[in-house]
UniProtKB/TrEMBL annotation:
GO terms for cellular component: cytosolic small ribosomal subunit. SUPFAM superfamilies: YVTN repeat-like/Quinoprotein amine dehydrogenase (SSF50969). This is Translation initiation factor beta propellor-like domain-containing protein. One of its GO terms (molecular function) is mRNA binding.
Amino acid sequence: MNEIVFFTVRGSTGVSINLGPPSYDLVSAFTREDSKACKTMVFDPQGKYFAWVNGVTVKIASVSTWKVITEITKPKISNLEFSPKGTYLMTWEPYLGEIS
């Protein structure tokens, strides 16, 4: 079974997707996220989707093409999780309470 291994990097230059060993080359089809505000990123359990937060929006990309298929504007999201079947994406943002 020859599966392609990918790994994601969230670093000082933003979020990037790389091929696994032996080359570790950047995946050119993925438009690198230059935001340094990425707090979380996750693959769905089946490996079909990759989601991340850039501090302003939640983005979901299809792994088959590495193209963003949807964006959700939510600036305070700090955690993401796909459901076990990958059919739902849950987001979490801290509750700050009401300002008096």
